Amino acid sequence: MLKAFRTVAVLGAGIMGSQIAAHLANAGLSVHLLDRAHDGESKNHHVEAAFKRAMKLSPPIFFTDKIARRITLGNFDQHFDRLKQADWVIEVIIEDLAIKQEMMARIEAVVRPNTIVSTNTSGLPVAAIAAGRSEAFRRHFLGTHFFNPPRYLKLLELIPTEDTAPSTLARVQEFGAMRLGKGIVIAKDTPNFVANRIGVYATMLGLQALEQGYTIAEIDTLTGILVGRPKSATFRTADLVGLDTLSAVLQHLHGAIPQDESPAMFAIPDVLRNLVAAGALGAKTKRGFYQKVKGEILALDPRTMEYALPAPIDFGPAMAIAKVKDLGDRLRLLYKDQGRAGQFFRNYMRRLFAYCINRIPEITDDFSEIDRALRWGFGWQMGPFAIWDRLGFSMVLADMESHSMTIPAWVMKMKEEGAAGFYTSAAVPTREMSVHGEMDGGRSARSNVVIPPSPPNSYGEATPTNGGSDDKVPLLKGDLGGSQPEYPNDHIDLDAIKADHHNLLWRNAEAALLDLGDGVALYEFRSKGNTLSMKVLEGLDEVMTLVERGEFRGLVIGNGRDHFCGGANLMEMAAMAQADMARFGNVSATELVEQSAISGLIEKFQGLLNRIYYSPYPVVAAVQGRSLGGGAELVLACPKIVAAAESYIGLVEVSVGLIPGAGGIMRMVSRATHRAATETPAHILPFLKTVFETIATAKVSSSALEAQELGFLPDDAVIIMDGDRRLDVAKAEVLRLDQIGYVPPAAHNTFMVLGKPGRAMFDYAAYVFEQGGFATAYDRFLAGKLAYVMTGGDLTAPTIVPESYLLDLEKQTFVPLLQQPKTQARIESMLTRKKPLRN
């Protein structure tokens, strides 16, 4: 490990600078954020106003509000000497070469000799920014290109110059990967580097298809989720970025790459020029290639420059391709299609492939860097070279040759040597050694860009938040899931593990037990949405028995998808509740609890989670993305947690008219009471108040750190910035716990509940929420049920109770709620509309 950074100075508090500073603070650094001095009385006016605006961005830029305290604001006139404290200075000022050069001169005069300095730029020549500086300064200098928003997008391009010392690059590379959780791509000092150079070309391929008779809706369908890219596809992404920004990028590129074989691709097309001239700049002006009018999404007709509802898409037989789940299979079928869809896709991909292979070694020596850049920066599931491999290397190459495309010598050498593909051949060019002395191209290839509402980045510029319904661009219908291609990487490669049948220890239709090696097993959900279906729960019970035989040192519960668990399978639960109603009719709540199938399911679920919590061997949950409802209860039950920083955990049962029923209330109450200084009600009450408000409002944490504050994660949870490492770290945690002699939590846990006096306070809080218009009458009813369980039911005074007491109260309260008409309406809304109903 190289020396880590502790203090960083960020120069420039605009949208990008403030967000870079926030992400550094999220990673635990002390940050100085400076901007130009204000001419008025308050010299910090500019930086304070900019930071205030950044604090209001959605999604939030900080893991928790408290982290903002790690940032110290200042101005260039009064506080520039703070740079003496910095281990790393990141310049993020205006994209003007002369102004950046002047800033570098000021920086060199202040910083310590070993301070690393980087310029954050999306396309200016990095070496020119340091022109005129001393050799010692240039050895500690490089370019950084964070993609926006920095907290959520994984890509960080590093651009060393000829003068950059290998140790400088190595230090930033290691820190960026391990502490900032970034996917690092090493780019050459060429215009727009790697991701934007290829990404802009791909965007222009889409725009040019308008001239070939394809509509905006058709192009976005054929460049969106159907082919493993974000649903914003080509034109919605352009609107989000800003059409003025796109025009500026094109203007810069067109003049900066005279040696490029496709200069005409970067000329601003008339349709884009006309939109910018008319002030239709995309999402920020609510009009661009799309316009939302009275709840409907209209698309531009480039012939008339008018907006209209898109015509229904009909690609003939190709419509069925959308139903194919595997992404590679979809792409192969689309490439072979003989209709309009196939014709577009073949032409688009041939040209993209040709452009990519001719950028090597211009923009990078390693083809896999292009794939990583587009997945981490633009949200593509597969990069161009992986797609080419899946389509068939020889077939596509022959197709390109038949269209007289320029094929560079290194690809022709692959053909001569009989290469099967880019990722299976030793003939392809690659950077021989990384700065660490190991083969490069070995970082994880799994994308981590599906995150809470935030669009994919393009061109490294700020993009507004998604906004949900605005993205309802017409698409081919179907389940568009897809498998990831296999890449060499230094993380646990779950696809490779699953490809070896020797690693499969057990499976049913919706779950599997896999051997991770070194005596560690992985229980993987395979249900739709990673829900806790009957088969998943039954499988987990069986797996616990298998592991308890002593052949393994411990168990990891996790998966390779973007989200840990979507909660209980509502459809199964609703069907079971309806069957109970038909079977028992109008029986009493007590009889229903004693006899219903739902009651039996809840009891088994509670027992299973208790079995996990008190397991004699280490059970570690590898958590990422969403863990909701029953998924949050599973997280609460796992004695050890490894969580990606981007983990969104919540007991959201009230949104479907229920309360947690599998131990979620019990564990939250237990954890809250044990965090209090004593068991006196006055000390416990503030912690329980947080629990009550969190569950009653269905609050979901915005990060793993906030999940700790809310009580969903324990204080000893291992939180990692790079979510792609979660399985590696979880496996290591199992081995560590086993090595030191794992001791499960003490059995027969008891804790204090507050009884009726405490319930009265929570009932009053629910009343205030209803009176203030923040809750419906049924929300208040559910809050009352929650308060009843949390405080011990009918107990008249604070009392010490065992876990089993609250578990029984959860079951007794949960089961009758399924018979409530308003609960049934909420469940139906979630199942049919995918939206919560506030009735």
TrEMBL record:
Pathway info: Lipid metabolism; fatty acid beta-oxidation
Per UniProt, residues of the 3-hydroxyacyl-CoA dehydrogenase C-terminal domain are 193-291
User: What is an annotated GO biological process for this record, any one?
Assistant: lipid catabolic process
> Catalytic activity annotated for this protein?
a (3S)-3-hydroxyacyl-CoA + NAD(+) = a 3-oxoacyl-CoA + NADH + H(+)
Task: Tell me the GO molecular function terms.
Answer: (3S)-3-hydroxyacyl-CoA dehydrogenase (NAD+) activity; NAD+ binding
Q: What keywords appear on the UniProt entry?
A: Fatty acid metabolism, Lipid degradation, Lipid metabolism, NAD, Oxidoreductase, Signal
Gene3D superfamilies associated with the record: 1.10.1040.50, 2-enoyl-CoA Hydratase, Chain A, domain 1 (3.90.226.10), NAD(P)-binding Rossmann-like Domain (3.40.50.720)
PANTHER family per the record? 3-HYDROXYACYL-COA DEHYDROGENASE FAMILY PROTEIN (PTHR48075), 3-HYDROXYACYL-COA DEHYDROGENASE-RELATED (PTHR48075:SF7)
Write out the similarity annotation: Belongs to the 3-hydroxyacyl-CoA dehydrogenase family.
Q: What is this protein called?
A: Enoyl-CoA hydratase/isomerase family protein
Which species does the entry assign this protein to? Romeriopsis navalis LEGE 11480
